[in-house]
Amino acid sequence: MIPFDGRFAEQYVYPFAHGAYDAENAPPNYSKGTDAFDIVADLSPEFQARLNKLDSKHRKPLEAMLAHPRRPRITDPSKATSDAVQAMPRAVEPNRHFGWICLDKTNARLVVAFRGSEYFKDWLDDFDFSPAPYSPIPGRGTVHQGFQIVYESVRESVRSTVEKLVKAGLKEILITGHSLGGALCGLSAPDLLNDIASELAPIVYTWAEPRVGHPDYVRFFDTRVNICYRIVNLWDVVPHLPPVLA
After folding, report:
1. What is the percentage of the chain residues whose pLDDT exceeds 90?
2. Which residue(s) pair with 104 in the sheet?
3. 19: which residues sit within 8 A by CB, 6+ positions away?
4. Does 242 reside within a domain?
5. What is the mean pLDDT of the chain?
6. Is residue 77 part of a domain?
7. 142-178, pLDDT tens digit by residue?
8. Are the CB atoms for 110 and 165 separated by under 8 Å?
9. The domain that contains 223 carries what CATH number?
10. d(C-alpha 237, C-alpha 88), whole Å
């Protein structure tokens, strides 16, 4: 087992996970369009028509993501109470920015960073964690449908950008994200490593990630990702959801 490097997690990985929330400024030391590229959700009429056919409960995680402001409004952790978050006004227009893909040439590393949503209550209340087959690679297990819908909305954006950047002589791909962004890590890693990033060594760090899949998917994930750290606060409800199912 590769030992957990807390300093690497705090000083290198966390700034990407935190920076993913800001749609207007790339993570520290990166420039939009040069070595940092937006992850953008698909809100095309075709995708919207598909969403409209689904139960509203399945759409809740995506709707919570789209309601998030383009820049975090609470930057002081001591003020990030549940009441303060719920009192924040929602985005007027859907926030299609779901994170950044950064090219770390110095370390020959590609970093995929997904943002989450501050509006946990939106998708926790009355949200049923219905199972669905993992759509990117059929026959590889069952995941939670609401999280998969979010990933499907950004999948093309992520894959097209990664496919362009893997040609830059890279050695590793690091995938990180917070909360719902952590769920996207769990769904995107096997998808990318299955083909377009198959030559890169995978590293995954998630922060407060909810449980994404069932045991069959977990077993498949473990065959694809050999370095994966799920960093959680034991008192945080999000990492303990959905309940473990056999």
Report:
1. 59
2. 109
3. 25, 26, 27, 28, 100, 113
4. no
5. 87
6. no
7. 999 989 999 999 999 999 999 999 987 899 999 999 9
8. yes
9. 3.40.50.1820
10. 21
- Using alpha carbons, list the distances in angstroms from residue 20 to 30, 47, 213: 12, 23, 23
Give counts: helices (H), strands (E), the chain. Answer: 9, 8
176 part of a folded domain: yes
What token pair was written down for 122? 């939106």
Angle CA(3)–CA(210)–CA(69) in degrees, nearest 5? 110
- Determine the average pLDDT of the residues in 87-93: 76
32 vs 178: CA distance, rounded Å: 21
Report the predicted TM-score, pTM, of the whole model to 2 decimal places.
Answer: 0.91
pLDDT category, 221, cuts 50, 70, 90?
very high
Tell me, what's the pLDDT at 242?
60
Domain that holds residue 157: 8-72+90-234
Backbone dihedral region for residue 29 (phi beyond 0: left; psi -120 to 50: alpha; all else: beta): left
Between the alpha carbon of residue 165 and those of residues 10, 32, 105, 186, the distances in Å are 25, 14, 11, 21
Query: Would 220 be classed as within a structural domain?
Result: yes
Count up the domains in the chain and report the number.
1
